[in-house]
Design a protein that fits this description.
It is a single chain. By secondary structure, the protein is mainly α. It has 10 helices and 3 strands. It has a 3-stranded mixed beta sheet with strand order 2-1-3. The longest helix is centred in the middle third of the chain and has 34 residues. The chain starts with 8 loop residues before the first strand and ends with a helix.
Length: 316
């Protein structure tokens, strides 16, 4: 029993590196992190300040961008510290907090994916009823439901994990406090918690994916009925960015988390973690901005206004 209290911190060893390699990785991931945070913050800012982006679709997109910022901020700064520091440690409490908020933002993100697909379904399949159905109050309730749903999904396993004893070793073979490597360091039977994680991941991913797939089946069938090719292309363009991001998110997460036990492929999980926590949040601002004409126009106008404002300050 006394040994259980000895483990008060964990050692994160995602990639054993030399000082030179660690410095190069630090610069690369720091750049990716800064671009991710700035890009998603820019999307949120544009949606707030530009009247053309005051619609349900962009409201949901702003919440998705916020969840992306939270996801990458939970994991990347500690990983950056590990590239430069010889003592790659994190306290047990810090590990629990990091893991909790990472999975909270991840769960919420998938619910928002489903909400956004429903929004596109209403916009394309029932355009005349869209303003009546997707009211401001409904959009706010859907976003609140997304965050509350993510909180409730991970709450049971989080409570159980908080009570696990750790008697050593305390080395986590990962970049952050992921669920699987942390669980397998516990001095207790973790089968119930693994099953709970598996079931919650299954319920979240399959239910949100099912709603997304059903919505897109109706969307595609409706678009194909549009007589003009230009009308079809315009309708597809409104869904292309969302569909691209959804495909990446579901593909990676289903492969990583919807398995009864994840111990056998921890090294593969590290690669997929980098894709979902670094690469995908980095690409999302470019996907949504470069493929969206309204977003590009809003960005150009905002930059022009900013330039004019700066010129006015300099002239005075």
């Amino acid at each position: 029993m006394e040994n259980w209290t000895l483990v008060t911190e964990f050692i994160l060893v995602g990639i054993p590196t030399t000082r030179v390699v660690g410095g190069l990785l630090f610069l690369a991931f720091l750049l990716a992190y800064l671009v991710t945070v700035l890009g998603n913050t820019l999307i949120i800012t544009l949606i707030i300040v530009d009247y053309r982006l005051q619609s349900p679709m962009y409201f949901f997109l702003s919440n998705l961008s916020f969840s992306e910022i939270l996801t990458t901020t939970c994991a990347v700064p500690k990983m950056l510290e590990g590239f430069l520091s010889e003592k790659k440690t994190i306290s047990r409490g810090g590990c629990s907090v990091q893991s909790y908020f990472y999975f909270l933002s991840g769960c919420t993100e998938f619910i928002i994916f489903a909400v956004m697909s429903y929004d596109r379904y209403v916009a394309i399949c029932s355009p005349l009823q869209y303003p009546v159905i997707m009211t401001g109050s409904l959009c706010v309730r859907l976003v609140i439901l997304s965050w509350v749903g993510g909180f409730l999904l991970i709450l049971p396993s989080t409570v159980l994990k908080a009570g696990l004893p750790y008697c050593g070793p305390n080395v986590i073979d990962h970049f952050f406090c992921d669920s699987a490597p942390l669980l397998h360091l516990a001095c207790a039977d973790i089968r119930i918690i693994e099953l709970l994680d598996f079931l919650s991941s299954l319920v979240l991913l399959i239910s949100s994916l099912s709603l997304t797939v059903v919505s897109y089946v109706y969307i595609i069938s409706t678009i194909l009925k549009i007589p003009s090719g230009q009308g079809q292309r315009k309708a597809f363009a409104t869904c292309a960015s969302h569909f691209t991001v959804v495909s990446m998110g579901y593909g990676i997460s289903i492969f990583v988390y919807v398995r009864p036990s994840q111990k056998s492929s921890l090294h593969l999980n590290k690669i997929l973690f980098l894709l979902s926590s670094v690469i995908t949040p980095l690409l999302n601002p470019f996907i949504f901005s470069l493929r969206n004409e309204t977003m590009k126009d809003a960005l150009k106008d905002t930059l022009a206004k900013g330039q004019s404002f700066l010129k006015g300050l300099m002239s005075t």
